[in-house]
């Protein structure tokens, strides 16, 4: 009897310690107005190329928020720094600093002027644009971090499935479908309460200091599409608590 009670006590302690060590990490709060603005801007740009809307994904947002939180802002009046791409990122990613919230999206889209739709190939100078309107991408999550008065805001957007896959540009990057930038179009898949895209006055604006703004885009430069394979975004965080449930079940049956 004493041995059974001792074993039950051990199981109970294990359950408690497992809960402590496997607890979820920091959860970031969503700025709804920011999410609405960048999602509407993203879907507007995609609509110009007859590409389906992307939807907001909480897992991608949390990943983007973590990336932004860990970014070391450049010092005022400095020449800038690496914007922070990491090789183990399973998602497509666009980065920018020195723009307004939607200005970052507009800056990425403006690379269209340098993209060769006939060739349909990746280029470092157009990687943000091609990821932004990539046809196979269906979900997005973005976050931001204010740095300082000189550099302004750092913006991170994560995309799934990732774009810029070598050999898949023709079937994923389409030319303009006839609409012109500035037109208001319907946006059914949005976090916004309105069904149409907002028209922010600062869309496409840069910081006042010439040359300060900077953007960076990750690309899948491998010769195969295998880098598009990653864990599907999901919001289930129940995993860490399942072990506790199992151990507690053992306690009750001992």
Automatic annotation (TrEMBL):
Keyword Signal: yes
Domain of life: Eukaryota
Signal peptide: 1-22
Cited InterPro entries: Allrgn_V5/Tpx1_CS (IPR018244), CAP_dom (IPR014044), CAP_sf (IPR035940), CRISP-related (IPR001283), V5_allergen-like (IPR002413)
Keyword Iron among record annotations: no
Keywords: Signal
Annotated Low complexity bias: 186-227
Region feature Disordered, mapped onto this chain: 185-236
GO CC entries: extracellular region
Pfam families the UniProt entry points to: CAP (PF00188)
SUPFAM superfamilies the record matches: PR-1-like
Segments forming domain SCP: 33-167
Identification of the protein by name: SCP domain-containing protein
């Amino acid at each position: 009897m004493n041995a059974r009670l001792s074993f039950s006590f051990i199981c109970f302690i294990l359950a408690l310690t497992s809960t402590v060590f496997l607890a979820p990490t920091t959860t970031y709060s969503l700025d709804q107005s920011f999410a609405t603005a960048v999602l509407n801007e993203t879907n507007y740009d995609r609509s110009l190329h007859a590409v389906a809307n992307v939807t907001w994904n909480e897992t991608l947002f949390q990943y983007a928020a973590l990336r932004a939180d860990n970014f070391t802002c450049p010092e005022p009046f400095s020449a800038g720094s690496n914007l922070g791409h990491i090789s183990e990122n399973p998602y497509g990613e666009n980065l920018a600093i020195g723009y307004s919230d939607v200005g970052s999206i507009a800056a990425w889209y403006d690379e269209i002027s340098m993209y060769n739709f006939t060739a349909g190939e990746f280029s470092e100078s157009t990687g943000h644009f091609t990821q932004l309107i990539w046809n196979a991408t269906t979900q997005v999550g973005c976050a931001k971090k204010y740095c300082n008065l000189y550099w302004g805001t750092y913006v991170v957007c994560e995309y799934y499935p990732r774009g810029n896959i070598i050999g898949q540009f023709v079937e994923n990057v389409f030319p303009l479908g006839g609409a012109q930038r500035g037109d208001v179009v319907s946006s059914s898949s949005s976090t916004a309460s309105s069904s149409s895209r907002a028209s922010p006055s600062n869309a496409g604006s840069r910081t006042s200091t010439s040359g300060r703004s900077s953007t960076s885009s990750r690309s899948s430069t491998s010769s195969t599409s295998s880098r598009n394979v990653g864990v599907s975004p999901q919001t289930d965080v129940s995993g860490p608590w399942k072990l506790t449930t199992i151990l507690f079940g053992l306690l009750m049956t001992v």
